[in-house]
Amino acid sequence: MSKKRAAAAKGKRRTAAKTKPDWTHRIFLAARSVGKPSVQNHPRRLAENASRLMDLVATALDAGADKHVLRAIEDLEEAHLEDAAEMVASLADAAGSTIPVLKQSADGVDVGELELLLVPVLLTVDRGRAVPLRLPDSAQDDRRSTLHLCTTSLRRYGLIGKESTVVVLPWLYAYSDLPVTWSGQRDMLHRCIAATSGDSTRLPLPQPTDVVTQPSLALRFVLFAVTSAPSDTDISPLLNGGFIPMSDPVVSSGDAATENVDTDPEMDPRLLAWQEHFAQTLAEGLPGVLSVRAGMPAWWDEAIHVGFDMYNLFGLLTSVAPDGDPETRLSTHAAMGFYLVDGAMELRIGLTRDGRFVGGFIWACHQEPEDELEKAFEALELMGIHAEHIHIATDILGDERCPDCGKPFFPGIHGEGLHEDDHTAPEPLRLH
Prior knowledge:
This protein has 12 helices and 12 strands. The protein has 3 domains: 3-95, no CATH class; 106-174 and 209-313, no CATH class; 321-418, Nucleotidyltransferase, domain 5 (2-Layer Sandwich). Helix 4 (43-62) packs across helix 8, helix 6 (82-97) runs parallel beside helix 8 and helix 7 packs antiparallel against helix 9. The strands form 3 sheets. Strands 1, 2, 3, 4, 5 and 6 form a 6-stranded antiparallel sheet that branches. The protein has a 4-stranded mixed sheet with strand order 9-8-7-10. A two-stranded antiparallel sheet has the order 11-12. The protein is an alpha+beta fold.
């Protein structure tokens, strides 16, 4: 079950008393009508019906009726109207990332659109420092502030048109700080409208983190609010899905462009140059940050998906072979198992070489457990670990930790639980 479906699952069956207005039925009828041949064959009627459906979905989300939108999607699927169901889901995604606004133009006030783009960034934070909460907004010597450099970067690299306006939210958000429902994302858009007018007090604040005792990875998201109008003559290639989807591009501050550059036809040179500049800007401006890897600007689900991939793949690679030696990977055995921690599933990966525990990695989960397990298995294989050297535990354990130091246990290839100070298995042997 997706995050949005899970968040809306409780009590989502409709009753006449609870559904005022009946968003489910209205959205179902509107979506079904769009797909009728009599409508499809008449462009004007099609445009009118599609516009009405789009307004219905957006208004329902403004009212917090996620569960009714999801129920309409399910009803359409049950009626074998899969195309209509996909259309409603697509409109809900769009309503969570775009919203109509009034935009000042040379000819007066025009009806434009505010589009919210998230950029996943992977921070390497130095020991003795906490993960930064915000982008510095003060100039340093002759260098403009980090916030200013980020705000002007999209236009500088030709990703948005000259007539578009950009506001970068000052906060660095963790995944846990972000809304997981369409209604929550829609509410964030309304808060962004206030921020573009100079009132950032309505923006949610990220949760502070503790000081790290060793260099650590942290996944954060930078939010760009871009306003454009249909009358704009300078086309913005980044907006309206121009660079979406892509195959997980990651550019590191100080690193060369990634492996996907030559194989992905959508890897625009402007985007790659912007990613490198953006990562370098953050690395130089964020206190306590040693390096930064930046993903691409995208809507909620795509940006979050890419961000988790960045964190998991880079973190796992550095755990498997810190020295970068392929021989190290070939001699590594991995054991994977799920642990239930604070009501959420946590996938831990224990690594051994020559029978000795050499480290562990906690794979960040945001999808179904089976999907996460498959993705982690594929990642280990791509890193050079033989499939027969990858072991999967069948039991789900609780939050197993060392009673002496409190560090988490990781699964071992023989079913034992291990942690970073161990080279032998502690008793009892819990995994199978």
